[in-house]
Amino acid sequence: xxxxxxxxxxxxxxxxxxxxxxxxxxxxxxxxxxxxxxxxxxxxxxxxxxxxxxxxxxxxxxxxxxxxxxxxxxxxxxxxxxxxxxxxxxxxxxxxxxxxxxxxxxxxxxxxxxxxxxxxxxxxxxxxxxxxxxxxxxxxxxxxxxxxxxxxxxxxxxxxxxxxxxxxxxxxxxxxxxxxxxxxxxxxxxxxxxxxxxxxxxxxxxxxxxxxxxxxxxxxxxxxxxxxxxxxxxxxxxxxxxxxxxxxxxxxxxxxxxxxxxxxxxxxxxxxxxxxxxxxxxxxxxxxxxxxxxxxxxxxxxxxxxxxxxxxxxxxxxxxxxxxxxxxxxxxxxxxxxxxxxxxxxxxxxxxxxxxxxxxxxxxxxxxxxxxxxxxxxxxxxxxxxxxxxxxxxxxxxxxxxxxxxxxxxxxxxxxxxxxxxxxxxxxxxxxxxxxxxxxxxxxxxxxxxxxxxxxxxxxxxxxxxxxxxxxxx
Length: 474
Known about the structure:
Rossmann fold; 6-stranded parallel β-sheet; elongated
């Protein structure tokens, strides 16, 4: 921040948002740029997403960031306005709130409408007064916390006036700061949320047992969701690829499904596939699958649970780390031998091509990605399919995530596959099973421990693997 400001000792106004027209960043810069008094007493810092090269960003983001830079020049805000290129949301954003509060600054959300306003609550928890739009969630936040001023975001003068009101009045700043800390604790902390929720449960659920000795509440013997109860009660988990592993021989597939129904109380199961969710459901319909407990789709970039197909958003957030899909497409566009797969093969966290591997093509792709510091991984399978995934995503990593989440040991999990895009899950800590009709890509795993190469093909190989590892004992 200091490298942007001529006078870094001033209080500063902090904005933190995506580079989106709806966030009204240009309105904030106008409010600051047209008010000499505001510029005199405070600096401005706008963290508008993370950027490397504006020219390769999406059109909406390009327009917003370009307008920001043009406005900075138009109002001659050099030495007063900071627009850093990046920030770490996990470690640096909490510090930004604290540094701004320490400078006796203000947090501002100038969006035309804000559905909730999580950053406003975060800022308030750090003792930072706020100025926010009067449309949407901030209305409730300011009503509960009494920690700032609501404004008509389309009026730049009103934004500037509200900022000045807080910055020049030390007593008001102090009141808003203290109110925010206490208000968040009272209305938005986990403890407050839990108490409100339990109070509602007590009104709805009979047979409750309230224990006030520690100020908390307990509801006796609440039933667990059926899906969660099932996965915590079974002794084993089997995950299998679909194409050429589960599917391929109808008779053995029907026998496997019968076994899964018979062993339902002790054996949960799921599929891990390169297919999208939609294509996975299509395959299940065509082959008359029973509903799996877990669906790992799009080469491990998406996880769904149970009959209602609940999407695991935590996994999606985890694999988004350093994922730059548009930049990857741009860099790889120079390779004429790469052909995009059809639209149904493309996902938010999976870029898929057709590739005929010869003359070190795959290696050259990997080198170009590395040279451009694009952290991702390449998975080549069946001699023609190339998938580009986030560095944290794969079938194997998704299975490890599920193991930890539901407390399965490696010995309790078997994974089955037939091709190169199954390799990382077969070679993971779990018990690996390679069906007899596997592709040559997996032969290099023969000497690895805890991997069984079945002589049986397709679903018969899965059944053989379950017997081999003792999952069907008794």
